[in-house]
Amino acid sequence: KRCAVLISGGGSNMMTLVGDMTGDHPARPVLVLSNRPDAGGLAKAAALGIPTAVVDHRDFPKDREAFEAELNAVLERGDPDIICLAGFMRVLTPVFVDRWAGRILNIHPSLLPKYPGLNTHARAIQAGDKEAGCSVHEVTDVLDGGPILGQARVPILEGDTSETLAARVLIEEHRLYPAVLRRFAEGDRRPIVLSTAAESPIN
Ligand code: GRF
């Protein structure tokens, strides 16, 4: 299976996905694509010999369709079976999502359906939640709303800031996303919940 990874920043999630796509893993990374030319993840991917590309959304002011048309053109060259959004910070229109329906995954730093959108950690702390976490879901027309394929939970501790909580969640993101991608690439869409021990399928 050919996997493209879309990033906007440092690409730590992309690096864990790429690092796991080896050996008997049914997928291989064929492209790392960013909407930001200065995304730190681009150099990391290039250093691993993975083809990279940039489609700068600022070249398409107020024209989301044109941006996505260029995104599609570049993606189609990579001919991906699976697209992983990993710290990708652009909202994709239903046109794009329908074009790649059933093949796009995203990681979101909250226990969906709680806290779709931005500032998830601050909102969880503000709400007095006892736990937070991350979710990998299939991307559909509903922002952060598609079928959940995996979740990992962390405690919210006394004195947590959104930074300390984000750091704790990011560790779980790096465990969860590769685990979900591996199953998804094998055609298994049963959701998993990562416990501190190992994966346990939600029965
Ligand atoms: C992470 O906090 C993740 O939750 C969100 O984007 C942030 C940066 O991810 N999706 P990365 O280091 O660029 O993978």
TrEMBL record:
Query: Any idea which UniProt keywords this protein has?
Result: Purine biosynthesis, Transferase
Note the SUPFAM superfamilies from the entry: Formyltransferase (SSF53328)
Q: Where is the Formyl transferase N-terminal domain?
A: 1-181
Keyword flag Transferase: yes
Entry-linked InterPro entries: Formyl_transf_N, Formyl_transf_N_sf, GART, GART_AS
* Active-site feature positions: H108 (proton donor)
Task: Name the residues that bind N(1)-(5-phospho-beta-D-ribosyl)glycinamide.
Answer: G11, S12, N13
Q: Which reaction does it catalyse?
A: N(1)-(5-phospho-beta-D-ribosyl)glycinamide + (6R)-10-formyltetrahydrofolate = N(2)-formyl-N(1)-(5-phospho-beta-D-ribosyl)glycinamide + (6S)-5,6,7,8-tetrahydrofolate + H(+)
Can you name this protein? Answer: Phosphoribosylglycinamide formyltransferase
Organism listed in the record: Boseongicola aestuarii
Q: Which gene encodes it?
A: purN
